[in-house]
């Protein structure tokens, strides 16, 4: 690094400070004020907003969001890990092609992709038509505006993150380790459970935290695919700011959500730091 | 001695390439056997077939008379020490060594006893709780060895076991491996590209090239009576003089007659090469020495025990290599630029097809 490099960082730093840190600080400040009678903000200090967050009604929405995000994370990890495993096992020269296909959805807009799911799932959608074409005559299945649709949408959108996060440690894993386990008498399953899985856990953790954090705060997918019937915390925040006009409470909800996300990301960063610390120590010893 | 492992006309094809081509070998009980060859000769593929990671395209592998060609690696009484050691990085030394016994579902107490025993034999007891990343190269090598030995396999396969060690340590570990093999009484099959290593360690060795077995014998026999020019060149150092076969030797290109026993099936005037080891060549040969050539000393290299001379002769394009003992050099010193006569006995000449 040259002594001038902080200067090169300045624009990015200014951008982030101006457009992210400042607004976040404003929202944080907002959380400690009272809601005005006609919707405005009354500038008197209070902790009521935070107390309200833990009201069973809202805490329930938090828990529900966590459950939906957790389910989506679990499914994404299982599917994503399997895909990453298959890609890492493919011939070296083909792996970049498969990875390219895995991230291809990122090239189109998130909203458009989510709308595409509506086309797919609605009562007269592609799935219903497909069922009819193979002779199904009953009521069209109600797929859209269900919790399942929300979970499916979340899994679909965040799956590439899991694939990328799991692919990294899987592709770096020395294949001789699995062979050594087999050679020492381990079955294929034992080899996976005791050697491959523990050594690629950091990737799984990174992917899982990513999906969970992005899912729990998501409001587009539950709004479009859940039809507003299944409120997640993101929708609640949206409602407080734009419909209920209770900015202080919306701010308090945001802060609690951000706190949860930060906590998870920090834990994950710590865990991966420890794992990579081990890896560097290994390289130095070699 | 009883045959433990019989490799019977084994072939392994990768696509159109035969990595191992119709190889037959018999490895005896309690033998230290080396598979030697340049990289790409098929030795590692052969080893992987013995371990069970590759299935032969043709032929059979018999262990104690039973065909194991199709038995998966985790069901074979055969263990492999990997070239990269393949120690499990998330497990301690003790856990690495215990892993194979846990797979056998032995009682915990028994596992502990056997792991302790093998750690004592391989001088690892003090390192039991270390992780692989905290070990030196030599220590990792011992853990890998202990992890395989603790299973008490019928056959232990070692893939370039000393390849990752520095030269000095390698010498010490060669003797150590031989001592251990003797102590545990397990048949060792070592793959190596280092001919010196094979000569030092092996009871018998096989030389492979391009998937084919060239020669299988004791190190002494292979060194003294190589089967062909390739083996002669690959093992040790050799002087080669090309020419045409004569009834009792080879006529070199300059017309010099090099006497030696002509192999069976070689006709007069066939393209042939006469070979002689540098240590079989003497300076100022006695009157009864059959082969003698004049030359000029071009270079001199002192090696402690012996002296290596490069002598320019009319016989070959490359200088002739001669090794004389320090003792002989003391009695009759030679200088660079000096004209000397060199010679060797007819029975020290090896003649190959060229």
TrEMBL record, chain B:
UniProt name for this protein: Spermidine/putrescine import ATP-binding protein PotA
Q: Which GO terms describe its cellular component?
A: ATP-binding cassette (ABC) transporter complex
Q: Which UniProt keywords apply?
A: ATP-binding, Cell membrane, Membrane, Nucleotide-binding, Translocase, Transport
* UniProt family annotation: Belongs to the ABC transporter superfamily. Spermidine/putrescine importer (TC 3.A.1.11.1) family.
InterPro entries, alphabetically?
AAA+_ATPase, ABC_SmlMolc_Importer, ABC_transporter-like_ATP-bd, ABC_transporter-like_CS, Mo/tungstate-bd_C_term_dom, NA-bd_OB-fold, P-loop_NTPase, PotA-like
MF annotations from Gene Ontology: ABC-type polyamine transporter activity; ATP binding; ATP hydrolysis activity
Q: Name one Pfam family in it.
A: TOBE_2
The residues the entry assigns to the signal sequence are none
Domain ABC transporter intervals: 5-235
């Amino acid at each position: 690094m040259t002594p001038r490099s902080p200067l090169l960082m300045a624009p990015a730093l200014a951008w982030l400070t101006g457009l992210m840190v400042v607004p976040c600080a404003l929202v944080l400040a907002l959380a400690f004020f009272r809601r005005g009678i006609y919707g405005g903000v009354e500038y008197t200090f209070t902790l009521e907003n935070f107390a309200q967050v833990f009201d069973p009604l809202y805490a329930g929405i938090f828990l529900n969001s966590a459950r939906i995000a957790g389910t989506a994370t679990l499914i994404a990890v299982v599917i994503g890990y399997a895909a990453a495993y298959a890609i890492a096992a493919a011939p070296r020269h083909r792996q970049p092609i498969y990875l390219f296909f895995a991230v291809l959805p990122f090239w189109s807009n998130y909203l458009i992709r989510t709308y595409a799911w509506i086309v797919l799932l609605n009562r007269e959608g592609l799935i219903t038509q497909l069922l009819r074409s193979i002779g199904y005559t009953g009521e069209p299945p109600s797929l859209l505006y269900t919790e399942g649709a929300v979970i499916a949408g979340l899994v679909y959108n965040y799956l590439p993150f899991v694939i990328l996060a799991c692919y990294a440690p899987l592709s770096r894993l020395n294949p001789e380790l699995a062979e050594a386990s087999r050679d020492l008498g381990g079955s294929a399953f034992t080899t996976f459970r005791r050697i491959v899985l523990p050594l690629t856990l950091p990737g799984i953790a990174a992917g899982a935290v990513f999906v969970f954090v992005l899912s729990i705060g998501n409001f587009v997918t539950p709004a479009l695919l859940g039809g507003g019937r299944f409120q997640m915390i993101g929708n609640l925040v949206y409602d407080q700011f734009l419909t209920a006009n209770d900015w202080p409470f919306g701010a308090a909800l945001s802060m609690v959500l951000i706190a949860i996300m930060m906590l998870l990301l920090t834990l994950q960063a710590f865990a991966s730091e420890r794992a990579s610390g081990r890896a560097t120590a290994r390289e130095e010893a070699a | 001695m009883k045959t433990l492992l019989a490799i019977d006309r084994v072939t392994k094809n990768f696509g159109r390439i035969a990595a191992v081509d119709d190889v037959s070998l018999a490895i005896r009980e309690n033998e230290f056997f080396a598979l030697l060859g340049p990289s790409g000769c098929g030795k590692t593929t052969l080893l992987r077939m013995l371990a069970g990671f590759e299935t032969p395209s043709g032929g059979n592998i018999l262990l104690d008379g039973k065909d194991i060609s199709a038995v998966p690696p985790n069901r074979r009484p055969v263990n492999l020490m990997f070239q990269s050691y393949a120690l499990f990085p998330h497990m301690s030394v003790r856990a690495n060594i215990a892993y194979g016994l846990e797979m056998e579902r032995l009682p915990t107490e028994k596992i502990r006893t056997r792991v302790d025993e093998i750690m004592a034999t391989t001088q690892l007891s003090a390192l039991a709780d270390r992780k692989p990343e905290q070990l030196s190269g030599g220590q990792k090598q011992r853990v890998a060895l202990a992890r395989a030995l603790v299973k008490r396999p019928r056959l232990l396969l070692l893939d370039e076991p000393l390849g990752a060690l520095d030269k000095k340590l390698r010498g010490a570990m060669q003797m150590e491996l031989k001592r251990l093999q003797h102590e545990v009484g397990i048949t060792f099959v070592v793959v190596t590209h280092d001919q010196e290593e094979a000569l030092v360690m092996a009871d018998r060795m096989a030389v492979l090239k391009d998937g084919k077995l060239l020669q299988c014998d004791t190190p002494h026999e292979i060194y003294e009576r190589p089967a062909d020019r390739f083996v002669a060149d690959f093992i040790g150092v050799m002087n080669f003089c090309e020419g045409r076969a004569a009834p009792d030797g080879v006529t070199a290109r300059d017309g010099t007659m090099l006497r030696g026993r002509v192999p069976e099936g070689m006709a007069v005037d066939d393209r042939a090469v006469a070979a002689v080891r540098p240590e079989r060549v003497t300076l100022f040969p006695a009157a009864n020495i059959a082969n003698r050539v004049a030359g000029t000393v071009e270079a001199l290299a002192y090696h402690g025990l012996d002296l290596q001379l490069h002598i320019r002769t009319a016989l070959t394009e490359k200088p002739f290599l001669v090794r004389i003992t320090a003792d002989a050099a003391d009695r009759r010193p030679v200088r660079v630029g000096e004209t000397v006569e060199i010679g060797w006995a007819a029975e020290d000449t090896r003649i190959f097809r060229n």
